[in-house]
Write a structure and sequence with these properties.
CATH class: Alpha Beta
CATH topology: Rossmann fold
Number of helices: 12
Strand content: 15-25%
């Protein structure tokens, strides 16, 4: 088994992927600055897997931190999740997104190059396709058409990785363009825990269901879709995590790079997702129509055939499983990881006293 450095590994997708890596027997080192995540997630992954997982609290922009990690651990490959990820926030704070996501990735790649670690699985996004010219979306479509700074950072990083692999054939790069991750681990112990008001649909619905928010704002109800609301391709986070392991296996076995869509291959509207969550939770989900947001598009879903053909991966979990697992996580952790973090702080304080 390999030693894998996972940047942003205590975040939503990262923590579920760390769990899958640990269950597969890999040695996992997590690097995270905890700006939008919690170390409690890694503690719970340790509990679920019974495996040791090293957590380094640090930043991918810190070359000294990265150098120390590579000196202490025989890293074979990197899974790169670290970065800011809110579309709306990226429109308001573009410099922060370019500095964190693009500049941070350059520092990471320089550290990898100097240490001879030349395998990376990159967390990209379907936002690189912008408003797609046709549906479903395939990997050969233009991937530099993002409509917001967040998506632009993903396109830029993809270009950097492509140039790097072209310049040095020893580099093996897996670019995973994923669509809309939702759900949680079926144990209900780890899940999505955004800071402040959620930016994504399902966490927002879950907050409404537990009474933390009064209603779900529906941005745009006049799109050319079956019910007027936006259509997206939702993929269970555990399917997505398993896709990262499949990509890592591909790099190690085939010794060449590639780009793959990771999606379920079907579109779901906002109101269809609301109804699915109502069925799973038994809770009313009030909605509030709002104007369309800048940067949003009407519809987007994947053609995942290439991932099935080359990675032998496909999304297996249903829409009902996505919402049921989300509800199990949220109803069991209405404040996310916050309660456990507060308990730890009080325990640490009492020990000091």
């Amino acid at each position: 088994m390999s030693a894998i450095l996972v940047t942003g590994g205590s975040g939503y997708i990262g923590s579920h992927t760390v769990l899958c890596l640990a269950e597969a027997g890999h040695q996992v080192i997590v690097l995270d600055n905890l700006c939008n995540s919690s170390e409690v997630a890694i503690e719970r992954v340790r509990e679920l897997t019974g495996r040791p997982i090293d957590l380094v609290i640090g930043d991918i922009r810190d070359m000294d931190c990265l150098s120390q990690i590579f000196e202490r651990h025989p890293v074979d490959a990197v899974m790169h999740f670290a970065g800011l990820k809110a579309v709306g926030e990226s429109v308001e704070q573009p410099l922060a997104y370019y500095e964190n996501n693009v500049a941070g990735t350059l520092v990471l790649l320089e550290a990898m190059q100097s240490e001879g670690v030349k395998q990376i699985v990159f967390s990209s996004s379907a936002t690189v396709y912008g408003d797609p010219e046709r549906l479903p979306v395939t990997e050969d479509m233009p991937a530099n058409r993002a409509t917001n700074p967040y998506g632009q950072t993903k396109s830029m990083i993809e270009a950097i990785l492509n140039d790097l692999a072209a310049a040095d054939p020893e580099w093996r790069v897996a670019v995973l363009r994923y669509f809309n991750p939702v759900g949680a681990h079926p144990s209900g112990r780890i899940g999505e825990d955004p800071s402040g008001t959620p930016n994504n649909l399902l966490p927002y619905i879950a907050q409404v269901a537990v009474g933390a928010l009064s209603a779900l704002p529906v941005y745009g109800d006049d799109y050319d879709t079956v019910d007027g609301t936006g259509v997206r391709d939702y993929i269970h986070v555990m399917d997505l995590a398993e896709g990262h392991l499949a990509a890592l296996d591909y790099l190690q076995q085939n010794k060449r790079s590639g780009v793959w869509n990771l999606g379920a291959g079907r579109g779901v509207t906002v109101l269809e997702m609301v109804e699915a969550f109502r069925r799973a939770s038994g809770q009313l989900i009030p909605t509030e129509p709002k104007p369309r947001r800048n940067g949003d598009i009407a519809a987007c879903w994947a053609d995942p055939a290439k991932a099935l053909r080359e990675l032998h991966w496909n999304a297996r979990r249903s829409l009902d499983a996505m919402v049921e697992d989300t509800w199990r996580w949220k109803s069991g952790n209405p404040d996310g990881y916050n309660n456990e973090t507060e308990k730890q702080e009080k325990t640490n304080l009492s020990k000091k006293q």
